[in-house]
């Protein structure tokens, strides 16, 4: 007996048939003696259909109205699921973000949740209702509808779970858990039973697409365990939870990769205070998010600076740097779009020496050249030539013995 | 310079192209120096698409959730129109029923508007914005979404106009005004320039489908002129307004007909107090609305009672009467579905004698037998055999000289 929040994505509610399946899963959870809150995305394809209509009118359409438009998608899915639950003999009620209230800031299209009032949901649960909540959407202080950005329903679900002090937040998706790496490029990839919030955050920010980063931050902040599992099976998935005493501290839990970045190098920069600030302000002014930054030690009063930006922003970043170069006086600005970032993540790194060294050696054995290196307490990332990505992932997966057989042997 | 409320129906916003056309019309009205509030229905076909999905789940689905579902339709149309207006260089903002607030009772699917707070719209107008409001929907005292029933957007528009003390409420539709009768069955039918609220109410309740009755009641109560016109032309339509001193008081303004009723006769009822109450309570308990009622004077302590009900409810009405007949002791209960009601409406009747007589004589000349008669201060209705409907309409249209040529001659 507990309070369970279940989140289903667009694919899981993509047709009337699938909505009926979700209803059965929800009712089964209720019948096992739980209170159940369901958080839903729009039916798959619906959000795109709406955005296409808006784009037909104006590609640069009003962001407030964009949110009014796309938030209608969850309005459809929550009412249909509620009806489907009632055909199975349970009572249910749907709530929009504005009805709960899920309060956000006013940054339309990528709003952040500020606060959730759990009282309306609690009252409904106490009246033995199943509660169906629209994910992805909220309302700002002036009553304007906001949306959280793609994948925002994960964050809605965890935030609702936090507001209700739920026992678990189950995220149903089309994969059956978190894997040691992408199974599409490494057949030995295997599902993790448990992973810590910190590791999940690193994996998500390094390119694993299963959970929205902000949802993991929320879960960690409020101590809500997330259970990532498949909506097409009853298999146990992966639990994302806080690092426990008894938790086996794998040196490396997963290997991630990201092909969506490009690198830019500014050569021969006069080494004086304020230069880096000038450069990165110019880039931030264009709304471009910089990931890795590396600066070599200065030689003869000149230094080199290399950093990565999203591939989509590469041209814009180069142009804006050329515009300000007169004030900087760098010798050359160049870049490369054919790069990829491969990373290893694991809380065990904190206590094991030379994990980075093992990574570099493994890549070297395959003659993969490392262009940039970046580390955190539980992560090492290397930038390499893009075409070696798959090879590098497989090599690292093997080096750190992540395959099922290897794990069982050890 | 004035405050104009414009309402566009589903056909007028049925595609992106049409939404762009509506935007141009709205902006043109603004550029002529008016403040403009637009009230919209859902894109045509959208409400049906949503209802079909709900029916796939359960034909008897939850009414609260039904309203959550279908109200998403206007959410789409208002945001798209707002975007389209902004491409033309004007600023605009959309509001849902729950944002304004349009407060209704809790009768889901056919809620009645209780109150509209005009302050949010007024503030937006004062900031030089065009305001786009979702028709058809409101919110009850507990924050649940409600809908007003089919055609409810007309009522939304007039109610918004009343809350703002607008100068006029323009209802754009696919016909270009109110006609003296249905042009499909009488070629001589011609468009009226003006018609009084009272006449419009009678015409609407007698079967003319241009305006929802409740919208006319609202307009009359708050003295808001309604301008019914076509969204596909710039022609002047028909103004529905209060009866004015200078208004030409046509003896008859229009001829209406209704083929959706059936008649039921109860013969040989013992003529004692309480019998009529017993009969009509039994019918009202089934949710059936009775229209005309006629009782002949009693002969030998027995009387006959005839009344009309919607054709759809005919069988149910007959069954419930047979169930209670033991307590009544009537000799026979029978009915007829092949009937129609033809009516003439005009405020001039108040001051002209024998209008009814002219109607009966005109029908008699064509050998059309009259089965029931019902009158009000500005209306005479006759029930006839259904197959004579079109003939009766044409005869009455001619008798009261409603054709354009006849009018000009007089």
Question: Which descriptors would you attach to this protein?
Answer:
homodimer; 410 residues; alpha/beta; VC0802-like; 2 domains; four-stranded antiparallel sheet; 14 helices; globular
Record the SSE blueprint.
Two copies of one chain form a homodimer.
Chain A: E1 3-8, H1 16-31, E2 35-40, H2 46-57, H3 63-70, H4 72-87, E3 92-95, H5 97-100, E4 102-104, E5 113-116, H6 119-126, E6 130-134, E7 137-139, E8 145-147, H7 152-163, E9 168-173, E10 194-196, H8 197-205, H9 213-222, E11 226-230, E12 238-241, E13 254-258, E14 261-270, H10 275-285, E15 293-295, E16 302-310, H11 314-328, E17 332-336, E18 339-345, H12 355-365, E19 372-376, E20 379-385, H13 389-399, H14 404-409
Parallel strand pairs in A: 1-2, 1-9, 2-6, 3-6, 9-11, 10-12
Antiparallel strand pairs in A: 4-5, 7-8, 11-12, 13-18, 14-16, 14-17, 15-16, 18-20, 19-20
Helix pairs in contact in A: 1-4, 7-9, 8-9, 10-11, 12-13
Query: What best-fitting shape of chain A do the alpha-carbon axes yield?
Result: globular
CATH topology of the largest domain in chain A: Carbamate kinase
The total count of strands of chain A amounts to 20
CATH class of the largest domain in chain A: Alpha Beta
Mean pLDDT of chain A: 91
User: What is the alpha-carbon Rg of chain A in Å?
Assistant: 24 Å
Biggest interface, chains and residue tallies = A-B, 37 and 37 residues
Structure, explained:
Chain A is α/β, with parallel strands linked by helices. Chain A has 2 domains: 172 residues, Acetylglutamate kinase-like (Carbamate kinase); 167 residues, VC0802-like, CATH 3.30.2130.10. The first copy, chain A, is 36% helix and 25% strand. Chain A is built from 14 helices and 20 strands. In chain A, strands 3-6-2-1-9-11-12-10 form an 8-stranded mixed sheet, sandwiched between helices. In chain A, strands 13-18-20-19 form a 4-stranded antiparallel sheet, with helices on both faces. In chain A, strand 15 and strand 16 form a beta hairpin. The longest helix of chain A has 16 residues. Chains A and B meet through helix 1, helix 2, helix 3 and helix 4 of A and helix 1, helix 2, helix 3 and helix 4 of B.
